[in-house]
Amino acid sequence: MSRLTRSPAWQKLVHHGEQMKSVHLSDLFTQHPERAQTYAQQVAGLHVDYSKQRITRDTLDLLQQLAADCGVLARRDAMFAGEKINTTEDRSVLHVALRNRSNHPILVDGENVMPEVNEVLGRMRQFTDSVHEGRWLGYSGERITDVVNIGIGGSDLGPRMVCDALASHGLPGLRVHFVANIAPSEIASLLKTLDPARTLFVVASKTFTTQETLTNAHTARRWFLDHAQNESAIEKHFVAVSTNHKAVAAFGINTDNMFGFWDWVGGRYSLWSAIGLPIALYIGMDGFERLLEGAHAMDEHFRQAPAEQNLPLILGLVDVWNSSFLGAETLAVLPYGTRLGRLPAYLQQASMESNGKSVDLDGQRVDYATGPVVWGGAGTNGQHAFYQLLHQGTRLIPTDFIASIRTHSPIGEQQAMLLANMLAQTRALMLGRGLDAVVAEMKAAGIDDETIARVSPHRVFLGNQPSSTILFPQMTPEAVGALIALYEHRIFVAGAIWHIDSYDQWGVELGKQMAGELLPAIGKAPVAGSFDPSTEALLSTIHKHWV
Ligand SMILES: O=P(O)(O)OC[C@H]1O[C@H](O)[C@H](O)[C@@H](O)[C@@H]1O
C-alpha cells in the first residue's frame, strides 16, 4: 500500500465511500433541502452548483482533511511563488503569471517574470492593432482578411475553443482558421478557400519541433511562395509563436515577428500566452485582456479563499472523490449551446495529459485511480445520441453541465428551450424514475397489463448520477477566462492529492518515437522481423494499396 492509501484520511474516505454508494441523491435532498444553497457558490461571475454530487458534510470534511494532510494549499502556494513543482522537467508552473493582472512580482530563479510577460502582451497589442487598423498589409498592399493558426495540442485546442466560445465578440472583417492535423485534407481544403495576398499564418509551437505543425507550415509556405514568387514577402504573412528562437529563425520566419513565451508555461496551459494570438486577432487585444482578467479573478480566489470556501479546491476534491472513492472512470463535460462545443476536447488535453499518470512524485507506481477519462459534447445534441447510457447504463458517470443564461443570438424560444433541457437532464439524472411511477404512468395512458409487465422494467431510471452545474449570465471573455481557470485549478488540486506530476507528459513520447521509425517503412514491403507481426501485417496492407 502507498503512503497515501495507508493514511488515516484516505482510509476513512474508503469506508465512507462504501457507505455513500448506497445513498440516493434524492434522499439527500429530502433530508437536507437546503443542500442547493449549501453546496453552491458564486465566484468570478460563475454560479457553481455541486449539490447534486454524492456528498454530505462528512464527505467534504474528510476530503478537506485529506487535502490538509497532502499539503494541497502549500503546493498551490509553491506554484504561485514560481517554485519548480514540475519536478520531472525541473520547471516552474506559471500560467497564472500570464494573467497576473495585479502585476505583483513573480520570481523564477530570483528573476521577476512580469516585465517579460508584459512586454509580450504589449507587442501582441501593437501587432493586432496594426492588423485591425490596416497598417499591417500583405505583400501586395492588401488588408489581412484571414488568419490561419497552424499548431496542434496546446497550440491549437485552447485558441480554437476560445475563438468559438467568443464568436459573438469577433471583430468584423477578419476570419480565423485552425489547421492542426497532419491529415493532408485539413490544410489542402483550407488553402483552396484562401487568397494568399490577404492571409496571415501564425505558426504556433512551443517547441517548434512538432512534426505536424512544421510539415503543415512548410506546406503553407510553399503554397504562399507559389503565389507571391518572392521570399521577402514571407515576413508580411508568417509570424511565429514559440519558446524556440533558433528553430523559428531556421524555419525562415523573421524573429522580429516572433512572439515568445517560456518553458514555465505548459502547452496545455498556454492559451493565456502569445499562443492566444489568434484570439487577440479575432476579438481584439482588449477582449483578450478581459479573458485574462476573468482567469485572474479565479486565480485570486483560489490563492486567497479559505479552504472551506475555496471553489477549485472543493471541486478538485469532488473529482478525487468520484474517481478514487466512488469508482467513476469518466467525467462527462456537457456544455449547453454550440459556442462551448469544443470545451470537452480542450479539457481532454488539460485533464488527461495532466493527470493521466500512474507513477507518483516519488517514482512509485500508484495503487489508486488517478485522472478520469474526460469526454462529452454539446447539449442538446448529445441528448439525442449518447445520453441513453448516462440514464440507463451500468456505469457511474459524473457530469458537468455548463451554460450561459443569456445569449448574444436571441431568436425565437431557443435559449429557453436550451436551458429547460439542461435542467431537465440534471434533474432526471439525479431523480430517476422508479417502477411504481412507470407503472402508474403506463396505466394512466391506458396500456394493457401484459404490456406494462413486459415493458415497464425497461422504462425504469435508477437516477443517482452525480452532476455539477455551472451557470454564468453571458458568454463574455471574463466568464470564459474564469471557467477555464476553474478547471485548471481543479486539475491541479486532484493532481496534488494523487501526488503526481500534473505538468509533464512523457506518455506522448513513445508513439512519436515509433512514428519516426515507421515513416520510412510506409509504402514499402516490410522486412520480416523489423517490427512486431501485427505492425508488419498492417504495413503489408498499406503497401498493397500504396501508389
Ligand atoms: O506547441 P508544441 O511544442 O508544438 O506542442 C504541441 C503539443 O504536442 C505534444 O505532443 C504535447 O503532448 C502537447 O502537450 C503539446 O501541446
Quick description:
This protein is α/β, with parallel strands linked by helices and 547 residues long. The chain contains 24 helices and 13 strands. The protein has 3 domains: 231 residues, 3-Layer(aba) Sandwich (Rossmann fold); 195 residues, 3-Layer(aba) Sandwich (Rossmann fold); 34 residues, no CATH class.
How would you describe this protein?
It comes from Halothiobacillus neapolitanus (strain ATCC 23641 / DSM 15147 / CIP 104769 / NCIMB 8539 / c2) (Thiobacillus neapolitanus). GO terms for molecular function: carbohydrate derivative binding; glucose-6-phosphate isomerase activity; monosaccharide binding. It is found in: Cytoplasm. This protein has 547 residues and is of the alpha/beta class. The protein has 3 domains: 4-70 and 305-431 and 465-501, 3-Layer(aba) Sandwich (Rossmann fold); 95-289, Rossmann fold; 512-545, no CATH class. 48% of the residues lie in helices and 11% in strands. The chain has helices at 3-6, 8-20, 25-31, 35-38, 57-70, 72-80, 95-98, 114-132, 157-165, 184-191, 211-228, 234-237, 245-251, 277-283, 285-304, 311-325, 343-355, 387-392, 414-431, 435-444, 449-455, 477-498, 509-518, 533-545; strands spanning 40-43, 46-49, 107-108, 111-112, 146-150, 175-179, 199-204, 238-242, 258-260, 330-335, 373-376, 399-404, 467-472. A 6-stranded mixed β-sheet has the order 1-2-13-12-10-11, sandwiched between helices. Strands 6-5-7-8-9 form a 5-stranded parallel β-sheet, with helices on both faces. β3 and β4 (111-112) form a beta hairpin. α2 packs antiparallel against α5, α9 (157-165) runs parallel beside α14 (277-283) and α16 (311-325) packs across α22 (477-498). The longest helix has 22 residues, at 477-498. The radius of gyration is 25 Å and the shape is globular. Bound molecules: 6-O-phosphono-alpha-D-glucopyranose. 6-O-phosphono-alpha-D-glucopyranose binds next to loops.
